[in-house]
Design brief:
By secondary structure, the protein is an alpha+beta fold. The chain has two domains: 31 residues, no CATH class; 131 residues, no CATH class. A hairpin with a 2-residue loop joins β4 and β5. It starts with a helix and ends with a strand.
Length: 166
Amino acid sequence: MASFFNKANEQLMKLLKSENGGLKKAKKTMNDSGMKIPITSNMMTRLLKMKTEEHKQLKELTVSFEGSSLCIKGMMNKLFIDIPFEIKLYPIKADKRTLHFHIHYLKPTNAEWLKKRIFHKPPFMLYQQDSFELDLNQMKKISIIPIGTIKHFEIKDEKLWVTIGL
């Protein structure tokens, strides 16, 4: 009986170590593929409004996708004056379930205090020197998926397509 298990163990080890083994192919397929999730501008707008609602200084937030960038427009209240702003963000990289964006430009002024007030809302949004991090796990559509990380993301057809895989 012991020799049967030894032979079976040897066969299994050969299968695991071989380049053309079925398990290696399955693992590679799982790593390469993933679940594509579309995120629309309306979903992003709702998420930003929900997370910045307690800050009464930000109003009329809208999100749109223009080409390969994410545009955020709105109004900010500073000393009882409403200041309209427009921000253009370019995606840089993904880390776990967090997307990193580069702040390309900010109108009317590229002031550091304005960027911090808009983007620094830990743990959902973080801002550090022209870099903005957005935790997508705050979205119900993403948090429903219990495992996996962002493998790929792109802005296409006015949607942010996020691929979550193992």
